[in-house]
Fold these 2 entries.
Entry 1:
Amino acid sequence: MKLLVCLKQILDPDVPARDFQIDPAAKAARRGGANLVTNIFCENAVETALQFREAATGEVKITALCYGESSAEDCLRKAMAMTVDEACLVERDGNTNPDAAAVGRVLAAAIRRLEQDGGPFDAVLVGRESGDWGVGQTGGLLAEELGRPALGFVESLQPGNGGVTLRRQTDVGIEVAEAEPPFLVTITNNEDNVPRIPKTRDVMMSYRKPLQKLSLADLELDSEEIRTGSSIFEVEEIFIPADEVECELAEGDTLEERVDQLAKRIHEVVASIG
Amino acid sequence: MFRVGGTVPLMDPTQATREVFWNIEYTWLVYVLMVPTLAVFGWGFWLKIRRWRAGQPAIRFDRPAERLQLFLRNAVGQGRTIKRRYAGVFHTLVYTGFIVLFLATTVVAIHHDTPLHIMKGHFYLIFQSLIVDIFGLFVLVGVALAAIRRWISKPKLLVYTDEASWILVTIFVMALTGFMIEGWRIAVTDDPWAAWSPIGNLFALASDPLMSDAAMQTGHVAIWWFHLVVAFGWIAWVPFSKMSHVFTAPLNIFTANLDGYGGSLKTIDFEAAERFGINHLGDFTWKDLLDFDACTECGRCTDVCPANTVGKSLSPRDIILDLQGLMHKRGDEFLGAVDGDGGNGSGELLPIIDQKTAVSPEALFACTTCAACMEACPVHIEQMPKIVDARRYLVMEEADFPEGMMDMMNSLESRQHPFAGTQFSRVDWTEGLDIDVMAEMDDPHEAEVLMWVGCGGALVERNRNTVRATAKLLQKAGVKFAILGREESCTGDPARRVGNEFLFEMLAKGNVETMQRYGVRKVVTSCPHCFNSFRNEYPHFGGRYEVYHHTQFLDQLLESGRLDGHDAADGSNGSSTITFHDPCYLGRHNGEYEAPRNLLAKVGGARQVEMQRSRNTSFCCGGGGGMAFVDEPPDQRVNQERAQEAVDTGADVVAVGCPFCATMLDDGVNARRGDREVKVKDVAELLWDAVGEPGQAAP
């Protein structure tokens, strides 16, 4: 079987609050002194794929694909250190537009190119959402571009009767599904797909493994078109929400009075919000 | 003059001597028996040496003068053994007794078997009779004291084996039978010099009324041969028992690590290494293997181990003894390649981790790398580096380690600091202080010194006060300093102690490169872990600096008058009694105990008290070795054990000199102080409180 995992490099979501800055003109976050990391749900997806490979009886090959700046090579190297077999970087040319539809188009083109060379992928794994924009659309839009069925919020893939058994989180519990390849899933986290720490030798080896690089031109995509994005998604404004706290103390001489006062005010506030 | 029994006339003491084989026939048998005895003895040690030689190379015969000094102090002089009073006393009695009795036997041999008849006259009377008798008594008393400890008081630190008991019994029997045969000889021969052998004579006087001369003569022959057989048997047994420490311990002390505990971890050649870290006995150096054979089972390492004290499964003593056991009993399987053969035949070496509970990952990952075990060991065994070696295997080959350490390492990898989720950047603490950042200076060389802030200083709220106080003191003294700001990365200490040598090396190389760019020569840091890395570990990566812990640097500023000492003495930091907690990586690892105490002494008003365990026997705060990032079970917290000790001194301020100690003890003291007001403060904070201008109290 062949699995493909999509990775995204993002600004470290753990960047200290006062280090986080925004460039209003570019409608994007400024990197400043912050680090770049692999989006956590993408790492969960890598871990899920690796666990599938470990559970499968036949040969399973995992490819990692990333659309990002050259710095995103680090994410792919880390995935290879986690023992992903192959990696491919589609180079992003400074475009900060987060348009998920455009990203989906790029990824779909890259996947088709990789499939041309190496045969079809049975499953495509995409992180549930990214820690920077949190749009959560890329998986679905990519499935649309590829014309493959998709399932969201999957937490594990296990080899099943001729296909793949999926477990997905829903509001009411875990749903177990059997899937016939090819398909796409978006991966969410659970306690079992915490990304592994690579062994040191694998880290060293990851720098010796080849890493395929493709440009938008290689994929016959118009870079300007991708930069402008689709018409279904546009960033209008980006700002840091002001954190306003109004503090009011419930008054009264006794505890009962204060509790009454508090309850009254809660009613009033709730009513005012409507 | 000396007369016994009144039958012998006064004699010339210059002619005093005794017959060597009095009452003994077939004396040739002694020499015949000596051959197998020495053969077994030699074979036993040859086996040991052969096993050690299966280890990896280590340079431990360099710097002979320093080694000799250490040898004289701690092997000949028993410098560390005598630190525990009871054991020190009985060991000294037995040890000195053994040496004197050995010399006495040598004298007999020379006298009898060579033309040099030295055993006569005053030398015979004073040394061979009186002194030997006294030291023989030492052995009896020493063994008796040891027996009382082993069989009656039974302290937890000992290992209770039959072997250890038999050693006491046989030594006692040898000494006692020695006195018996001496006594009967004196009694039967009416030895005119009897009084020079007081213990033997006592035995003679006691036997005389009870036994006939013939009975004593028969008893003498029987006991004489019994004494000989026991002694020869014992000698043959030495290399196979812990008594081999008579030879292995002095050798181990001579070949000890001379670079201090702070520089005791090995580096790894990642390109060449077959395995990272150690999971096979044969991957240890010969010196590590010698360590196993040098152990005397005294248990002091485990007794002082912070993790063991709070009830965790780590026991440095058992690590050493269990590995020793594997090496002795199944050496070929575990060591492999002894004399070039392939170990257990399959060519595969057996793993040591998890073979025994002592070397389970759980135990190994409880170590704070505080080096208390190494400091306590009378024979200089290096327990802690072996624990780190095994951790390296687990971390780098198996990627198997506790969760807290995983988060820490993830953060080190992606953010170059271990504090995932911190709300601070590396420069937030400088707000309002006007501090130069090297990257923003026109000429970074203008900075006299680099103030290395450390992650623990910049990114942990509680410690930002410490680095602010340090910076303000430097400013007040007119020191031209700068920081690296956002270009500073973790030195890699937590990664290295946890066992991720690869990550440590990457971080170290990065920092060396940054510091090279700015021509850094002098470094001041308030983190002893960073201090240790710079001082002992960075030179390996080409980073050579003059390194100061902030307490050392501030002490120098006071000494040289750059900081006004009067200010300090007149000022008050509002505390009445201070106790200083020695950080392991400043004290034990780097030998600095005075600078922080000097500083505190110069701070006005407060009295200094010491905790029970201080200076080189200081008890870890629990934060070293990556343990600051691990959630300890509530009933097994090292920091609370230490905090209790600090609180028990009655001090109202616990002074610290390390950001990890500060947070660990803050938590511990809050849990243990009860209703009392006890604060944990860095020495720099206390100094600033005392010398800072009015209205400039540390923020």
Note: The interface with chain B takes residues 12, 14, 16-19, 33, 35, 37, 196-201, 203-204 of chain A (CB under 8 Å).
Entry 2:
Amino acid sequence: MGVLELSIVTILGGVVAGLAYYAMKRRRDPLLVTVLEHLTRYYLDEKFFSIDKMSEELQLPKEVVEKAIVRLEKSGIVMRTSKGYSLVDPLIFLTPRDYERALRLTKGDNIIYGAYQMPFITSLKYVIVQILLILGSVIFAVLVKFDMFGVGSRVGELLGGKISPMAFSLFVVAVAIILADVFNNVVKAWIREKYSVVVGFHSGVLYDVAVPDELSGRITRGSIARIDVDINWRQKINNIFGEVPIGDVKVWVRGRDKPVIFRSMPYPRELFMVLRSLQLGSLEWRKRYARELALWRGRVYPFVSFRRGRRR
Amino acid sequence: MGEEKEELAFELLERIEDAYRLPTQMQVALFLGVEFILIIIFYYVPLSLSAKVVGFLLATSLIYPYAIKVRNFPTELLAVILFGCTIAAFVYYLAESAYVGWEALNTPEFWILVIFVLVFSVELFHHMYEKARTVRSRSIIIVDLILTIVFAFASWMFLSKILSSMWAIMSTLILTLLYFYAIFPEKPF
């Protein structure tokens, strides 16, 4: 095989992919930002809003506002409930079904944080299963390719000449990749059933304690004595290289010796801030940063920020 | 109370993830450092130049999303270009060097290659471009459905050549469902 041909194909592949991305990339939509700003300014503490009212307030055609709201709904910033549209707080990472459940169980409280504990992310079993699936299949393909330990010949005999052993090993790798992804999805679906944590402004912290549970774990806002964030070394590594930043959040409740530990919560420092706000009865920071958080959360426009922020 | 107010004034960054990640310069330095090590490894590995190029591109594509956590237009564009280069080179390499020639259409080997490319390319794209993996937009769902139909067809063409009809139908159905479930956008938390 010529390296020149390979280089040409490689460059062509890159150019085509880059052009496709550039052509399909959504530009900053000023209308969407206007709608979002209006929502975060006037509807942060409102339970529901209607498109008709928004259209009237913004003096924009109803269809235009509706289109923007549908886009925000896809980004998870706005959620359609049985009672109308609701502005979702930027730190709510629940599915629409669980968000509705939380609203129902808190009797329509102002929910300011909602997510799932993710203890599996740093669990060795979880990581090992995925590595075994993918790495095992790749090792199998290498053994077949170079006929190490007679694996290639033996697989050839088993297949009876219907297909080449090497092609079969590629099939095994493909199936292993699918299974690893399915395993990952199943684990995520499982944690959604078992590990919801919801913070309501009036109802305090509610959390699931078992699979069939309906947020029966409860810490009222007045009973929070102390809060702490604990990020261990595995979580630290995950936060640097992984997908979602996580950490343990410990809540000491008055009258109890041991803290309630929420393991591997997404964005633990923000949860800490939410709980501190709850403890102090002040949501000023949330109002102040609602717009930025919502824009960040919804990826409404691509940030090309070269501003140096203060680091912690 | 003064301290508590001070604590609440604690600034939330515009992109809150920044607080958890390495500084941008460190991310770039780490990525370049790993690339340098990869170049040295592939220089000494006894493989053909084509295999070295493909291997280097594959390794770079796997490492890039772990090392570079900045999300903006240039970094996403670079990820997509890298994906395009890698997948084009990898498919060309597989088709040319290996196991099937272009003339070998409608053989089990050809359909295995189609299945492998469908799985590998989608998973690599999900690995490199977060939105395709997590956002359930109409266009992404339509693309996923089309890919699933192609996958089902390729699986049937392959399995019907090596299994009886009944087993081929059953296996195609199971594999297709698993494939769709695997590639369907899923929230990361």
Note: DSSP finds eleven helices and nine strands in chain A.
